[in-house]
Amino acid sequence: MKDLLPPEVELRDRASAMILATYKRYGFRRVETPALENLRLLLGSGGGENEKLIYKVLKRGAKLDAAATHGEDDLADLGLRFDLTVPLARYYAHNRATLPDPFKAIQIGPVWRAERPQKGRFRQFTQCDIDVLGVASEIAEIELILATSAALVALGLEQPRIRVNDRRILAAMATHCGVDASRHGEFFITLDKLDKIGPEGVERELREAGYDDGAIAKLFELFRSTEDRSPDGRLERLAKIAPAAAEAAEGLRTIVRAVAREAGDQTTLEFDPSLVRGMGYYTGPIFEALYGGGASAIAGGGRYDRMVGRLLGHDVPACGFSIGFERVVSILEERSGSAASERERIAFLFDRDDPLTDVVASASRLRNGERVVSLTLKRKNLAKQLDDLAGEGFGSYAVLRPGPDGPEIKPLARRAAGGDGTDG
Fold first, then answer.
1. What are 282-324's pLDDT values in tens digits?
2. Homologous superfamily in CATH for domain 6-336
3. Helical segments of 305-412, H only
4. Which end of the chain has fewer CB atoms < 10 Å from its terminal CB, N or C?
5. Domains of the chain by residue range
6. CB neighbours of 78 closer than 8 A, spacing ≥ 6?
7. Tens digit of each residue's pLDDT (9 = 90 or more) over 383-400
8. Whole-prediction pTM value?
9. CATH class of the structural domain 345-411
C-alpha cells in the first residue's frame, strides 16, 4: 500500500474520469459495493489463487470470545474484497428486483490482496470494471471489448492488443490431449505460464507433473496447427481438430469479426489458445488487453455465468472486463510524468499587510472565470517561491494592485539554471 502525492492523485483522477466518461457512452451506470464481504462468499467464489490472499477480519466482542473456544478457523467472518466481480454478483443477487434487465454496471474502487510487495504489485490497488448481467449473447463480450478498448485509446494508449480465448476451448483441447477432466485445472495453470517460461518450460513442468509424452505432443501440435493464420482461420482450424470446441469457436469468431469491423485499426485482436486467466469462475470467452511490447496484461476479463447462480439457485449470464488501473497509471506516469491541468492554475500571492477582504474578493472573481486559484502567502525569497509554484503546475501568479482593475496576473516559468527565478 502506498501514499499518493498530489500530482499522482491528479493524474489518477483524470484517468478515472476519462474511463468513466467512455463507459457511460456505452450505457453503463456506476454502482458501489462495500469493501468488506462475507468470508464464506469470498472463499467460495472460484477466485483461484486470490482466495489465498484474502485479508480476513476477526469477529468482534462477544462473538470473538465465543469463537476463540472453537479454534482459529472460526475467528473471522468478514474479508476485504480481492476483486470487484464477486461483490457485484452478491450485489446483483440482493438487488435484482430493483435493477434493470439487462444490467450494465461500472465499478471503480480499491481491492486488497495479501501479495508479496514488488514493483507494479501492491496490497491495495484500484480496479475499473464494467460488467453486463442478464445477456447470454456475444453482444455482451463485443460491447465490453469495444468499450474497454475505447477507454484505453482515450487515455492515450493507442492500438491496445486484445487476446481472446474460451474456457470451453481450453477444456476441449485438454480432452483432445487425453487429460482427465479432474486434472484440467492444474493443466491450465501450467499452460498459463507459456508466455513466461516458454514452450520448453511448459513441456518440462507438464512432464514433471506426470503427463505422458503423447499428451504433451498433441498440445504443441494444436499450437503449431493454428500458427500464421488470422484469428478467424485459427479458430476454424482448431474446431476441425477438436470438434468439441466448435460451438465456442463459432462464438469467438462472431466476437472477433464484430470487434474488428467496428474498431478498425484502433485495436488489434488476437486469438490465443494458450490464454487461461487465473480465476476459476470463468465459464466461456476470456480476454486480456496488452499495450505496446509489454507482456503483462493491463486489462482482463471474461464470462462467469455460474457465479450469481451460487447465490440465487439459478444461473444468470454475466460477463465483465476490468482495467488494471495501477498498471495503466504507471504507463501514463512514465510517458508524461504528470497530469496536465484541464483549467488554468493561478497562485494568488498576498502580503501580510494586504487587506484580506480585497484578497478574497479578487480571488473569487478569478475563480468565476473557471480558473483554479490558490491563495498563498508571499515568502521573502520570491524567486524560490515562484520556481516552486511552477514545479507544482501553476501557470501564472497574481498579486493585488491598487484601484478597481483587480489583481495583476503574470505568467510563471521554471527558473533556468543560474537565473533569478522570475519570469521574463
1. 999 999 999 987 778 899 999 999 999 988 889 999 999 999 9
2. Bira Bifunctional Protein; Domain 2 (3.30.930.10)
3. 309-312, 325-336, 356-367, 382-391
4. C
5. 6-336, 345-411
6. 36, 37, 38, 39, 56, 57
7. 999 999 988 888 899 999
8. 0.83
9. alpha beta
